[in-house]
Amino acid sequence: MLSEQDLFLLKEKANQIRILTLEAIGYLGVGHVGGCMSLVEVLTLLYYRHMQVDPQDPRKRDRDQLVLSKGHAGPTLYSILADKGFFPGEWLHTLNKGGTRLPSHCDRNLTPGIDMTTGSLGQGLSAAIGIALGNRLDGINSTVYAIIGDGESNEGQVWEAAQAAAQFKLNHLIVFTDSNRLQLDGFMNEVMNIEDLVAKWHSFGWFTQRVDGHDFKQMDEAVILAKGQEAKPSMIILDTIKGKGVAFAENQPANHNMKLDYATAQQVISMLQSGIGEEHE
């Protein structure tokens, strides 16, 4: 269970990662603000509390691995990898520019610490299942994590993969759905409603939980419970705010990929640094 000190440090780190991500997008002038911001807390929890990784050996065979299926949220993951020392922080200022090693969507061939190239929505869960099966064959007991989007879950391949993971009893697979209720074309309930997600994943044979995706205590407890499963893969549905921490972007359909010039990014960063915006917690 998280101590109050642990909780304080995670919140501080999440704020730092949010700032680094906004600064990187600001240098470029455009980016996936919405989906990047909604994942800050869960990625912070994983990389600073639960995942066993080594910045000096990014391809270590028995490491925990993450498949960020919604690969357009890569800038948040890049910020964490830079902060942990996988590559120099200066790389963040090259986001999606010519010659960069940090493309807008994750690419394992370019970026140290990225475990799977993603961005073609619907495919990441299948890749995570393949990694988990490979680990089992090799006798490796590390955990494979994956993050999918609620909009992405309109893809049929997600549900084919869900059946396979349950069939193979992949208890070392923990998946999160970023349920921010928005996708590129608008609100989920208007484009293609996928609720009730808990009932759906449960019916597919997964150990299923639903928590606040910005609450570290709830997520931490959910991950611990998921790790305790002996014969089922786990789905943790995260109720999140798309654009979290950027007041003018929160819950706005246009925040999927939006302009964010450097001056505006700095204004938001100043607010985050001063603690303004805590009402959006």
Would you spell out the secondary-structure blueprint of this structure?
Elements: H1 4-28, E1 30-31, H2 33-38, H3 40-50, E2 65-68, H4 74-84, H5 124-137, E3 144-149, H6 156-167, E4 173-179, E5 182-183, E6 186-187, H7 188-191, H8 197-203, E7 207-212, H9 216-227, E8 234-239, E9 258-259, H10 262-274
Helix pairs in contact: 1-3, 1-4, 1-10, 3-9, 5-6
What features would you describe in this structure?
With 281 residues, the protein is of the alpha/beta class. The protein has one domain (4-280): Thiamin diphosphate (ThDP)-binding fold, Pyr/PP domains (Rossmann fold, 3-Layer(aba) Sandwich). The protein has ten helices and nine strands. A five-stranded parallel sheet has the order 2-3-4-8-7, with helices on both faces. A two-stranded antiparallel ribbon has the order 1-9. Helix 1 (4-28) crosses helix 3, helix 1 (4-28) packs across helix 4 and helix 1 (4-28) packs antiparallel against helix 10. The two termini are 21 Å apart. Mean pLDDT is 95; it is low at 277-281.
